[in-house]
Design goal:
Blueprint lengths: L24 E5 L6 H8 L3 E4 L5 H11 L3 E5 L8 H13 L4 E6 L1 H14 L3 E5 L10 E6 L2 E6 L7 E5 H4 L4 H19 L6 H23 L4 H20 L4 H13 L3 H16 L4 H11 L4 H11 L16 H10 L10 H13 L8
Parallel strand pairs: 1-8, 2-3, 2-4, 4-5, 5-8
Antiparallel strand pairs: 6-7
The structure holds nicotinamide-adenine-dinucleotide.
Amino acid sequence: MQEPLKPIVSDSAMQNFVYNGHAARVIFGSGTLARVAEEVRRLGRRALVLSTPQQIDQARHLAATLGDLSVGIFAEATMHTPVEVTERALKASRELDADCTVALGGGSTTGLGKAIALRTDLPQIVIPTTYAGSEMTPILGETQDGAKKTIRNVKVLPETVLYDVDLTMSLPASLSASSGMNAIAHSVEALYAEDSNPVVSLIACAGIEALAKALPAIVAKADDREARWQALYGAWLSGICLGAVGMGLHHKLCHTLGGAFDLPHAETHTIVLPHAVAYNQRATQPAMARVAAALGARDAATGLYDLAGRIGAKRALRDIGMPEADIQRAAEMALANPYWNPRPLDGAAIKRLIARAWSGDPPDAAI
Ligand code: NAD
C-alpha cells in the first residue's frame, strides 16, 4: 500500500491574492470560563446570558460566575435563528437594560447573539460549545415564515470569543461527530474557494488535520481531553476559513436542503460533504490532494465518507428525514440562485449527487 501524501505546508506558487481577515479577540484553552467576568468588564457591566433550553444549567452556572455583572438569562435560542425568538430576546434585553450579551452554546445560540448585535450593536462575548464555527464569521442566517435568509455584515462579529475545552466535554459523541464534520466542510470548501488564498489554505489544512485526528478519538472516548482540545482548535481554524472566503456547492446545497426540508444542520453537512467533494474533484485537483493529505487518505471524497463511517455518523439523507420524492425538487432549488462553484452547476449531475447522498451510497467522482 502506498503511503498517504504528506500535507503541503506552504504555497510556493507565485499568486496575487486578497486576504480578508476579521479582527477578533480569542481566548483559548481549559478553565478559560474563569476569565469571563474580566471580559464582560472590558465591554460593559450588565450582561444578558444566552443559551438554548437544553443548556440552561450551563447558562445558570455562567450567570453565577458573573454575579452582579449578569442581569439575567434568556434561554430560548433555537436552530436557524427564528426572528420571533430574536424579538423576544430583544424585549428581554431592553427590559433588563443589558449592555452586552454572553452567548454560551453552539451555532444556534451564537446566531441569537449575532441577531441581537445586528439590531442593537450590543457588544458580544461568544463561548462556543460545539464545532460549528459561527463565532468566526460575519454571516447570520435567520428564518422568518419558513424561509431562511443569510446576511453578511461585520456588525454581527463578536468582540470576544472565549473557547473553553471543558465546556465541550458534555457534547455527546454523535453531536461531536456531525459538528466536527460540519467544521471540516468549512475548511474543505475554503481550499477551492473562488477567493482562496495561501493563508486561508494553510489554516484550512491545519483545521482538517486536527479534526480528522480528534473525532475518532472522541467517539472512542468522549472524555479524551487531548482530542477535545484538538477538535475545538480545529473548529476555530475552520470557522476562520468560513468567515474569510466564499463557499461553494456544498454549503449552498446544505443551506437549501436544511431550509426546505427542515433537516438538522450538522448532520446534513456530514452526509452531503463527500458527494459535493466528488462532484468538484476533477475541477479542484490540487485542493483535493491537500484535503486527502490532511485526512491521511488517498482520496478526498472517499476519505471523508470513510471518516464519517468510522465516527458512526449518519451517511444517508433518508436517515435524517428527507423524503425520496423531494430529490427532484431539491435539485431544482439548488440551481434556482446560481453561484460560483469550481465545476459549473449541472442539474442532472446535482440530482445524481443528491440521490446518492439520499441513499447513503459512497461518493462517485464520475458523477
Ligand atoms: P446547536 O447550536 O443547535 O446545538 C445542538 C444542540 O446541542 C443544542 O440543543 C445545544 O444546546 C446542544 N449543545 C451544544 N453544545 C453542547 C455541549 N457542549 N454539551 C451538551 N449539549 C450541547 O447546533 P450547531 O450545529 O452548533 O449550530 C447549528 C446552527 O448554527 C444552525 O442554525 C446553523 O445555520 C448555524 N451556523 C451558522 C454559521 C454562521 O457562520 N452563521 C456557521 C455554522 C452554523
